[in-house]
Fold these 2 entries.
Entry 1:
Amino acid sequence: MRELEFFHYHSGASIWHRHDPRLKLLELSLWSIMALASSPEVMGVIALILIVLLGISGTRISRMRKPLVFWAIMAFTIILTAGSSGGTGSADRLVIGSCSLPFNPEGLARGALRAARLLTVLMAGQLLSATTDPSDLAAALRKILFFLPSSWSSSLATAISLTLAFIPRILDEAAIIRDAAFSRGLGSRRSPLRRMVSLGLPMAEATLRRADLTTEALLSRCYSENPTLPELRIKIRDLLLSLGVILPPSVLMMCIS
Amino acid sequence: MTPPLLETLSLCHTFPDGTKALDNVDLSFHAGSFVVLAGANGSGKTVFMRHLNGLARPTSGEVLLHGNSVLNDLSRARRSIGLVFQDADAQIVGQTVAKDAAFGPENLRLPRHEIDKLVKEALSATGLVGFDERRPHTLSGGEKRRLAVAGVLAMEPEMLVLDEPFTGLDWPGCADLLTVLNNLHSSGKTILLITHDLDKVLAHADRLILMESGCIRADGSPRGIIGEVEKLGIRRPAGEITGMSWKQRL
C-alpha cells in the first residue's frame, strides 16, 4: 500500500500527536482566519509556529515535496494574475523583446502575499491531518457539533473520517491501474483525452469495486454511525499548549491593530 | 445430539441474469468443528459465505443461527459469525493495528475498558502483540491476514469463516496463520475455512465439504471423500492426509 504523504495521518507519540483533537480543530480555525485576514507579520508568526510544530511532529519537508510543487504552480498563477492586473500607464508594462506585458509591482506583492497565506493554511491543514487519527477527528467533530441533531453530526464526522481513511486506498488502486496501463503501452498514445478515458474508466470501476468490498467488510463488523467514541480529555498540558500557539499571533495582531 | 450452531435450509441464490450461484444447499455446522469447504473457482463458495451473516439475501431458503433466521437479527448474526474476507486490505479500516482490532467492538458500543481487553486478547491470540501502534498497511501479507482475524475475534464470534485465507501468502505466512487457526480451534472456536487449496489445511479439519456449481457434491470426513476432489476440479494433495500440515513441516 502506498503511503500518502500529505493530508494523511502518520501515527506518532509527539506532544502534538497527543494534543486534544478538539483544541487542534479550534487552533486550525483560528490560525486560518488570522493567516487569511491579518497582517503579513501575524501570518509570519503563525507560519513560524507551524514550521516548529511540523518539525516536532516528525513531518519532514521531503514528505511535502509533491504538494509544495502543486502550491508553487498555484502561487505562480496567483502572483502572475495579480501582477498583470491593475496597471494602466505605460510605466506599468514589462517589455520583453517585442512583447509588452502589463506589469504592476504592487499587484505582484499582493499576489505573493496571497500565495504565502495559502501556504500557511495548507501547513495548518497538514499539521492537523498528519497528527490526528481520523477516528479521533470524528469524535472531536461530534463533540464540537453538539448543537446539531446527532444524526447530522455523526454522519458528517463519519463521512470525513472515512474519506480520510480511504483516500490512500483509492490512490493505491489508481496507481496499480496506471502502472498496468503504461506497461501495456498507454504512454505511447498521443491523445491526452484517450489516455484519460483509458485510465479513468477502469479507475472508476476499481474504486467502486473497492468501495463495495469495504462496505461488506464494514457491515460484517457491525458498522454503526454511533460507535463507542475514543476517550477525549482536555488536560492542563493541552490548555498550556493551546495558549502557547495561539497567544503570540493574537497579541501581535492586537498590537498592530 | 446438540442442535447445530448454524444451518442452511434449501438455500438458493440466483443472480439477476438467471445464473444459479447456490442451489438448495442444506448444511449444518456444530459448535467446535473445523470444517473445510472446497470447490473450484465459481462453485459458489464465496456467495455461500456472504449468506452466513446476512450480507446476501437468499432467493429462497434460509440461514438459521441457533434456530433463528439470521435476517431477523443481523447485528447478532454479524457478531456471532465472523467473516474474514479474501482481500485483507479491504477489511482493514483502522489507522493502527490496535484501532483496527477495536473497530468491531466500538461498533457494538461496548465500554472502553472492555474494548481494550478484547483488543488485547485478540492481538495476543493472533500473535500480534507489540504491533499495536504499527500502521496496518506496513504489515506483511501474513500479518495483515492475522490482523483481519484479530478484527473479527475482538467481536467474540462463535464461528469464524475464512475465505481463501492462504491466497498470496508465503510459507511462513501460511504457517503462522495456520497456527493461529489451530489454536483458536483448540480453544473451542468453530471454524469454516473456504478454499480450493487443500494441502495446507486438510490435516486439521474434521469435515470436508465439496461444492460444484452451487450444489453440495460431497460431505464427510476428509479421509472418506478425498477421492472425489479431482472430479470437481480441485487438486488432490499429494501424500497422506495426516502429513499435509505446513505447520507440522515447519
Entry 2:
Amino acid sequence: MKGIFTIMLKEIRDNLRDKRSLFFALVYGPLLMPALMMGPLVLNAGKHFEEYDSGRELHVYGAEYAPNLLEYLRSKNMDAKPVGDNFVQRIKDSDLKLVVEITENYGDNFNQGKPAKVIIHYDTENQQSQSYFWQVRAELDSYGRTIAAQRMSVRGFDQSVLRPLDIAENDLSEEEMRSGIIANILMFLVIFSSMMGGFYLAIDITAGERERLSLEPLLSLPLSRMQVALGKYLAILAFCVASFILPIVSVAIWAMFLPDKFFGIADIPNAVTYLKIALLSFPLCIMMTGFLMVVAAWAKSNKEAQTQLGIAMLFPMAPFFMVQFMNIKSTAVNNMIPFMGQYLLADKIMFDSAYPVVALFPSMLSSFILAVILLGVAIHLYHKDSILGT
Amino acid sequence: MIFAEALNKSFPKKGQRKEKILAVENVGFTAKDGQITGLLGANGAGKSTSLRMVVGLLEPDSGQANVDSWDVVKNKLEVRQSIGYLPHNAGVYPRLTARENIAYFAELCGLDKKQITDRVDELIHLLSMESFADRRAEGFSQGQRTKVALARALVHKPKNLVLDEPTNGLDVMATRRLRKILFKLREAGHCILVSSHIMQEISIMCDHVAIIDKGKVIMENSVQGLMEETGQSDFEEAFVAAIGETLEEE
C-alpha cells in the first residue's frame, strides 16, 4: 500500500509543478467554463425577471387624458411618467424602451362608449422594448376587458358572454425546462471539467513517462505493476475529483444570483440538490479516470495519446447534445446508460430536491461497474510488454 | 550473480500484429560477483532486450534467468530488490530535483525517512552531485542525468547492477568518473552487467565480455581471451571477426 501512495503523492506533486496541468485542473473547467456558461444566463435572467418583480416606469404621452387608466396601471406596478414630443426618436435611440401614447380624443370616445385609441410605441429590434411591450399590452387588454365587463353589467347583460372560452394555463414543461437548463449545464461542466482536469496528468504519467523513458526504471523497482498502476490511477483520480467538485461549487454560486422566479414551479436548488448531483455523478468521475488512463496507456506516444483522448472526449459529451435536442426521456434503461442517466437524473434532482437518493443507485451502479472494468483494463495494460513501448 | 540461459524473446511486427520479430534468440551468459561483465553488440543486436529480461521488465518467451538464485519470472520482486537498473537514457523526472528523484526511488524501495536522508546524502557525495542536487532535472546535462539515474539505481544498495549503455552521451571526463565509480563498486564485490557498443569502453572496463549479434550470444570470454579465440591482436578486430564480418583491407 505504501508504494501506491508514494507513487500517487509523487505524481500529484510533480504535476502541481506543471502549470498546464494545474490550469486545466483548477481554472479552466472549474472557473472559466462555469463563468462562460452561467454568466450570460444569470445576466439575462436577472434582466428578464426584475422587470416583472419591481415597480417600473411607464412613459406616457398625453397622460392627462386618461387618469383612470394610469391609476389602473399604477396598481399593476407601472408608474406613469410623462414624456416630451420627441419620444419616437428617443425609442429609436434606445433611450426609451416603450411609450404609451394616449390620444387627445381618448376621453370623449371613452365616455361615449366608443373605442378610445391608445398607441404603444416600441422597437422590436430592442429585446427589452419587445419584452416590456407584451407586459404593457397584457395590462391594457386586461383593463379593456374590465371596462367592457362593467359596461355590459350596467346594460343588464351577463358579462360572461364576452368570455366564450374559459382558458386556464397549465404549463408543465416550461418551468421544468429552466431548472433543466441548470441541470444540463452542471452535468456538462462536471463531465467536461473532470475530464480536462485529469487529461494532461493521465498523458504525462503514462504515455509521457514512457516517452521520457522514466517508466522503465520505475517498473524495475521492487513493486508490482498493479501497485504502479494504482498509484498513478489515484493521482489522476485526485485531479479529476478536484476538477469535479469545483465546477459544482462554481455553478452553485452562480445559481445564487438567479432570481427565484427563474426556477418557476421547480425547487430552488439548495445544498442538498448539489450534494445529490455530486453523489449521482461521482461514479462518472471514477469511470473517467479509468477511461483517461486506458487511452493514455494504450497510446504509443504523448502526441498519439493527446489525439486519441481528444477524440475520445466526444463520447461523454454526446449525451449532453442528445438530451438537449432529442427529447430523450428518463426511463429505467436510459437512466442506467452512463453519462445519459446522469443527465436525465440531474434534471429530476434539480426540479425536485427531495428526489429520492435510492432512485439514483441503478445509474450510479452501472457507471461504477464500468469504472471497475476500465480500471481492470488499465492494470492489464500495465502488465503488457507494450507499456514499455516495445 | 546474474545467470541467463537460452533466453528467447520476440515482439509483434509494427503494423502487422500477427507477424513477429525475433529480438533475442537463445541468449545465455554469466555475470559473476566482483566482476564487470560486458554485453557488447551493435545497435539493435538485442542487448537492451536481454537486460530488460534480466531485470524482470520483460518476460522471456522461453529460457531462464536468475539473479542471486532468484528466478526473474517467478520471483520478480526479489529480483528487483537485489538489482539496480540504469536504463538507456537515464529517464529522470524533469520537474523533480536530483535529490527528489533519488529520494522517490528510495521510498519506493522501502527505506524509511532517516535511511532516505542518509542514503541520498551519501550518494550525492559519492557521485559528486552537490552542485546540482537541489536543482530541477530539466536542463541537466546528459552526464548529470546519468549520475542521478545511477544514484537511483544504487539507492537500495543492490548487490547487482545492470547498466544499459551507461556512457552514452557522456564526455570523456564524465566517462572516466563513472568508470571509477564502477571500479569501486566492483571492489566492494558487486556484480555489474554493462551493455555497450563502444569497444574501448568495454575493453577498459570489463573483466568478462559476451558478444551479442542478431539476438544471439556469439562468444563469451575475457577481453584477452576473445582476442586469442579469434586470433586477433586488436579487440575491435576480434569483435568484427567474432560476428563474422569481413575485415576491411587497410
